[in-house]
Amino acid sequence: MAMPDIPMYVFTGFLESGKTKFIQETLEDERFNTGERTLLLVFEEGEEEYDVSAYPHKEVYEQVLDYEDLSPELLTGLQKKYRAERVVVELNGMHLAADFYLKTPDHWKIAQEVMFADATTFLSYNANMRQLVVDKLAGAEMLVLNRMAPGTDVMPYHKIARAVNRKIDILYEYTDGSTHYDDIEDPLPFDLNAPVVEIRDEDYALFYRDITEEPKKYAGKTVKFKGQVARLRREKEGMFAPGRFVMTCCEADITFMGLPCKFAAASGLAARSWVWVTATVEVKFHTLYKGVGPILTAVNVQPAEPAEQNVATF
After folding, report:
1. Is the pLDDT of residue 63 over 80?
2. pLDDT tens digits for 235-261?
3. Domains plus CATH for the chain?
4. What pLDDT does 251 receive?
5. Are the C-beta atoms of residues 301 and 238 closer than 8 Å to each other?
């Protein structure tokens, strides 16, 4: 029999970024801690410790774990041992959050993921440990930037976060005790209301992420972009996947990001050749997405010169 879903509240960020303090305050809050049996997984031991005596309900069971020991079986065992109804996780910032999720039981579902960062070190972390920063921003629904000096230009922080995750909310916490939600708008660099939505080479990565995250707003529209030809495995004739190699954070993390496209003459296209694709968009199930996503139907496919930058970036 399938096990009931267990909600997971995940808090990421680097050492001394405020994760422990926030989780402690959250578990002290009667609006969050109403008596549910809570498994608290800790992968990083900083200066602050958890104080169960301050919780309005004490059914919180802390476990300090190492990444090397993780497995779905271990975590399921801990859940059963404490009869946990939910899980709160403080992740170690020097490990990839993606690696943690690969080792969680299938019935553990992310209810919320929040990233914490010290504003005084965030920019240098992004410059020197970009992969770790991108990993955490990609899945977070909110970024909390604390220890920010009043008057600091927030645009560099905003650009880093929204380049990775356009949906992420950003909260700035200032050293004078004030807070401010980021309200900067991020208009798309292409016109979705144009008869043909034309994508510049430098905007392909953003276009791909937007159309795959919110495919319904592209349904029925015509798009035009430059990409390379890719074959789809186990796909019937008359289909290919035009796209680009995209670097999300570093050279070690380059992935081909293409869109399934119906085209009667697809078999005549040379793999990795560059083409201009003009196509209409519909939203349907496809195995590439393991669910519903954008499917193109080519109106016109023409040879093209390679993009100036072989690899697209955000």
Report:
1. yes
2. 567 899 999 999 876 656 789 999 999
3. 6-181 (3.40.50.300), 197-313 (2.40.50.140)
4. 59
5. no
Residue type at position 64: V
Q: Residue 254: CB partners within 8 Å, gap ≥ 6?
A: 245, 246, 247, 311
pTM: 0.72
Q: What is the spatial distance between Cα 49 and Cα 213, in angstroms, rounded to a whole number?
A: 38
Dihedrals phi, psi of 7, to nearest 5 degrees: -70, 140
Task: Report residue 122 as tokens.
Answer: 């965030």
